[in-house]
Amino acid sequence: MKKQKHSEAALNSQLIRRPIQKLFPIFLLPTFVAFCIGFLWPFLHGIYLSFCKFTITSNAKWIGIDNYVKALQDAGFMHAFWYTALVALTSLVIINLLAFAVAYALTRGIKGSNVFRGVFFMPNLIGGIVLGYIWSTIFDGFLSHYNTSIVLNSTYGYWGLMIMLCWQQIGYMMIIYIAGLQSVSEDMLEAAQIDGANGWHSLWHITIPTVMPSITICTFLSLTNGFKLFDQNLVLTGGQPFNFQPDGTIIRSTEMLALNIYNTFYLNSKSRGVGQAKAVLFFILVAVIAIAQLRATHSKEVQQ
Amino acid sequence: MKKLFALVLAVAMLLSMVTVASAAEGKVYYLNFKPEADEAWQALTKTYTEQTGVEVKVVTAASGTYSETLTAEMDKGANAPTLFQCGNQAGVDTWADFLLDLNGTEFANELTTSDFNLYGENGELLCVGYCYEAFGIITNKALLEKAGYTVADITNFESLKKVAEDIHARKDELGFDAFSSAGLDGSSSWRFSGHLANMPLYYEFRDNGVTSQPATITGAYMDGFKNIWDLYINNSSVEPSQLASATGDQSLAEFGEGKAAFYQNGTWEYANLTGKYGMKAEDLVMLSIYIGVEGEENAALPCGTENCWAVNSQASEADQKATLDFLKWVVTSEEGTTMMAEQFGPIPFKAAKASSNVFFNDANKYIADGKYVVSWAFNYTPNVDTWRAGVVAAMTQYSAGTGSWDDVVTAFVQGWATQYALQ
Predict the structure, then answer these.
(1) CATH code for position B119
(2) Nearest Cβ partner of B418 from A30, A248, A269?
């Protein structure tokens, strides 16, 4: 303790702080450069491209808002939007409920809870593509006994995706909840117990308000994960089964937004801009939802 | 430890900033389309570099992702591919700004035929077909004889159906089935949405005299398409409902291991069948695909190619020259022609070496017998990947019994018009 104070004092000394303050751009530079290269520039360039017709990004021709008009007229895009919203919301609820329940159980001091934590977390270490292949084999292995397949029925596709998402993400969210649960003050729980609160009371009135920051993070993560989902969707069903409209257009019944954008982008050289416009709309959508949700849950957090 | 880590990071960052200075000499970057030929290309280019000192890079796109990989690679400016694959109308439309006119180049002068090339509106030679392929129903003659038939018994759809249904009915007694599984998994669904679909397309285009990409198709021969598809899926050891997830490897294995007498695929499978599965060349023969069209006894094998080279017109002149020199070497040198014959069979160049692939002999025999060549009509498909995906999805539903044939027709006919309008 004493040593820490000592070093804090040393850091606060003018002699050390001055040069650090002066040199802050140097410390900031690498991250800032990476941010510009990896995010800011592609993002701005992407917005520009959404107004262009292009085959590759370096030969773009400005064509105005045509791409946006086409994107919004696309029935497949609208279907993908609603389907994505449904997947994101369902997965948000299921993943968080289960992750919290598992975390709660594993902080009760069960024997071997560290092993369980490790086991539950592990699926998260596998990449989405590999996971998709593994699960499509599992699902098809099971469904083939009933002479069907996950690509033949959109209901199977939907719940298959849900099972896979839960399996992959519950462990990750669980770790965040465990961290939150461990910070719940024992004193408070004990005081509540003495005052006659039962398990539900202390869960509702003490534990959940205290872990609200974790809930904020987890709901934020699972909601944006749900919206941005791509590789699992691509591999598990690839949008199948398709619904054929009388005019020959195809609505891919299990296609989510990111996959729809990808498919549009690679359709042909004229559709790249449309795909790009969809991607910009997609960004705005995810940003708005994430900010709104962050605000809503932030207000419920309590400071200890 | 932390210091070391920071040092490593700093060095890594610095290194990534230093761009490799490009050589003044031209260099070649080939974005290869065929994963199965990757090893051969790597070895060949190594020889070329040893002989001439010219740097040749070969990168192979993962199976089924060529257009995505090409799109990303083309964006690399001076490091973009100088040589790439562009094998159909859709490719030419997409990459129109990147196709160098190859007319009059030394490499193009080595060609023996222009049948497999793709030309621009004003006769520019945009893509050079560097090999040709044929597909059909690969047949195991030994198994056919075991069932009491010979290849000569099969001359049209009726006779194919009779033989296949008889073999299927006696499969337990014979120990093998008629057709290998018609798997609709992405690994080989192109066998049906591309190659098999070529049959109704070819006959329709033949009747209507179509010679360029049509805006709409009528689906006049869709009944024939249904005939052959029903025959495939009902006379195979795999239940039609399981085809959604059945793979190309599985189908190849069934045929290779002698569990099926017929296997629809192309000349390119020869090496796999004789190599990996140790089949005897004399047991293998390729039959044309019959769908119940009048006069189809006279159909030769569907011959054509999607394997065309295009040179990047936006590459530097030095790189273009290096690429053309490399191509000329590939189709004229001892090493190059040997490799091409081994990997691609007969190639349409003056110095071509003979190929041991018996399927090409079959293809040539049909032509020598005066039969009509079924051209690759599917090369006109608009937005080919999307169109095919729709057809495969509908065929999957139909085969599983959860969709109707009408959907296949919709995906096929209306799907064509829709994709044409979108391109």
Answers:
(1) 3.40.190.10
(2) A248
Q: Is residue A44 part of a domain?
A: no
B392 and B405 part of one domain: yes
Range of the domain at A146: 68-298
Reduce the secondary structure of B99-153 to three states and give it as a string.
Answer: ECCCCCCCCHHHECCCCCCEECCCCCEEEEECCCEEEEEEEEHHHHHHCCCCHHH
Are A244 and B394 inside 8 Å of each other by CB? yes
Give ∠ CA B169-B173-B174 in degrees, rounded to 5.
85
d(CA B86, CA A60) in angstroms, rounded, equals 21
pLDDT in 10s for each residue of chain B, 423 residues: 455 555 555 555 555 544 443 445 789 999 998 888 889 999 999 999 999 999 999 999 887 788 889 988 998 888 999 999 998 888 888 888 899 999 999 999 998 888 788 888 888 999 999 988 899 999 999 999 999 999 999 999 999 999 999 999 999 999 999 999 999 988 889 999 999 999 999 999 999 998 888 999 999 999 999 999 999 999 998 988 888 888 899 999 999 999 999 999 998 888 889 988 999 999 999 999 999 999 999 998 998 888 899 999 999 999 999 999 999 999 999 999 999 988 888 888 888 888 888 888 888 888 888 888 888 899 889 888 889 999 999 999 999 888 899 989 999 999 999 888 887
Are A222 and A92 in contact by the 8 Å Cβ rule? The answer is yes
Instruction: Give bridge partners of residue B89 from the DSSP assignment.
Output: none
**Do residue A9 and residue A144 come from a single domain?**
no
What ipTM was reported for this prediction? 0.72
Local structure of residue A111 (DSSP, 8 states): T
**List of chain A residues whose C-beta atoms are within 8 Å of the C-beta of residue B387:** none
Q: If you search the block for the tokens 């056919």, which residue do you land on?
A: B144
Count residue pairs from A and B with Cβ separation < 8 A: 108
Supply the range of the domain harboring residue B64.
Answer: 25-132+305-350
- A63 assigned to some structural domain: no
Contact B383 A268 (CB under 8 A): yes
Would residue A52 count as lying in a domain? no
Question: What residues of A are in contact with residue B393 (Cβ under 8 Å)?
Answer: 151, 240-242, 250
Quick check: A55 and B71 CB within 8 A? yes
